[in-house]
Each structure stands twice: as C-alpha cells, then as structure tokens.
Amino acid sequence: MAAQTVGLLHPGEMGSAVGACLTAGGTRVLWASAGRSDESAQRAAEAGLEDVGSAEDVAAQADVVLSICPPHAALELARSLPSFQGIYVDANAVAPETVREIGESFDRFVDGGIVGGPPRAAEVTHLYLSGPHAATVADVFAGTPVEARIVSDEVGDASAVKMAYAAWTKGSAALLLAVRELADRAGVDGALAAEWEESIPGLAARRERARVSAERKGWRWVGEMDEIAKTFAAHGLPDGFHRAAAEVFGWRQGVRS
Predict the structure, then answer these.
(1) Residue-wise pLDDT tens digits, 134-169
(2) CATH number at residue 168
(3) d(CA 207, CA 28)
(4) Using one digit for the tens of pLDDT, what is the confidence trace for 212-241?
(5) What is the pTM for the complete model shown?
(6) Residue numbers of the domain that contains 25
(7) How far is 139 from 144, CA to CA, in rounded Å?
(8) Residues with Cβ < 8 Å from 144, sequence gap 6 or more?
(9) Cβ-contact 9, 75 below 8 angstroms
(10) What rounded mean pLDDT belongs to the chain?
(11) Partners of 163 in beta bridges
C-alpha cells in the first residue's frame, strides 16, 4: 500500500503522542496552526508534525484525517472541516450514536476508540477501529506503539468498546472520589482510610491516582461521562450512574455546581 499522508486534528496530549508515533516511523503528519495555542504549536513541533497553516490545507493534502479532541468538541470539529475526500477517523470518546452522526459528513469514515494513555515507545496504546475502511487505517499504524485492533465493519462498534471500557475505569474513579469526599465531610475519613487499608489493600492508592488524574484531565471527562450515559440509555440501561459521575468531575473542576 502507498504511504499515507495523515492530518491530525488537534495535537493535544494524546494527539501529539499519536502523531509522534507516526512521524517516528516516517509518516508525513500534517496539522493546522491557525487559531491554535502556542502550547499546541510546541507539542506539534516536538512530535515532528508539519504545519500547513489551515484546516483547508490539511483537508487538501491528507489521505487520512485523525480527530483526537475532547468529546464535547468532536461533532463541531468534524463539521468545521472543509470538503474532504479521504478517510476521516473520529478517535474520540463519544457514544456510538454520536459517532454515527459525525460519520454522516464523510463518504469514507472510520470509528475509533483509544484505550490507554498517550503512546510511548515502551507502552502500547490500543486503537479500536470499526467501519468499512478500518483496515486501511490499521495499516497506517503498523509497527508503531499504537496497536490498531479492528472490531468490525460497523461504524459505532469501536466507540461502544471505548464507552464500555471507560464506563468502568473513569466511572469507578468518580465513585472513589465521591465516597472519600463523603467520608471527609462526615468526619470519618481517617476511619475509612484505615478500613480500606485493612480490608481492601490498594484502594487508597487507587483513589489517590484518581484524584491526581481528575485534577489534570477531569474537565474532559465531564463530556465523556455524558456520552457513556447516552450509550447506556440507548441500550435500555440505567444511565444515572454516569450522569452522576459527570457531576462529580464537573464539581471538582468547577464546571457544574
């Protein structure tokens, strides 16, 4: 297969790391600096991305465009891209219903879901893919720390994997944060911590990791919890837990009261 030129929208922490994996293997990766921050420009430069200025130029030159952005921005970002004839990959933490709506804007579309942290040389990140063109996108990542896994040829299936996975990892983190806050406000935090240490070793350390992660990235998780709740509701399951998880993350970030 001929080498693919990849467009990346936008180089945040995850996107720039994914882009760096591709450039390290010799893939040409484009990005658009117009309207982006100095921090984005620095991440893009460190990842070896090529600045072509505008989203219009990304769309004109890329064979594949990767969208890696906060979930609440995924639909708007897709709709803002000028006419694009290549393969558009939405690799965001959104519900299957949302990703199918995004896919309506493109003739060739792949649903993606990233599981794991930003890829590094010593740590593999999984990229779940679904849709008729998933194999083409998987080939782009061959030999990189991003391990592409094709779920099916149905758009929405990769996002369903991501939603189910994050429903546990981030949903349980929200529960731990809420429980510890309750114990603190009730004045029994010390007793709870001692009981955890005795009967559930390791839980206190996990709660601390959840706290640190939520302080850094919890603002992104508000929208992700909403998308997970949307997925539960679409399958006739109670969605209240993850609506509440969104409130927990939003409360900690001052996003929701």
Answers:
(1) 999 999 999 999 999 999 999 999 999 999 999 999
(2) 1.10.1040
(3) 40
(4) 999 988 888 999 999 999 999 999 999 999
(5) 0.93
(6) 6-155
(7) 10
(8) 21, 22, 24, 25, 119
(9) no
(10) 93
(11) none
Q: Write down the residue that tokens 């760096």 correspond to.
A: 20
Question: Which stretch of DSSP H or E encloses residue 136?
Answer: helix 134-140
The length of the chain, given as a count of residues:
257
Cα–Cα dist 121/110, whole Å: 25
Instruction: Single out the residue of 157, 130, 132, 160 nearest to residue 232, CA to CA.
Output: 160
What per-residue confidence (pLDDT) applies to 257?
A: 40
Q: 133, 155, 177: which is the final residue of a domain?
A: 155
Give tens-digit pLDDT for 15-53: 999 999 999 999 999 999 998 899 999 999 999 999 999
Judged on CB neighbours under 10 Å (0-12, 13-18, 19+), 1 is: exposed
Whether the Cβ atoms of residue 113 and residue 147 lie closer than 8 Å to each other: no
Q: At how many degrees (to 10) do helices 203-234 and 157-185 cross?
A: 130
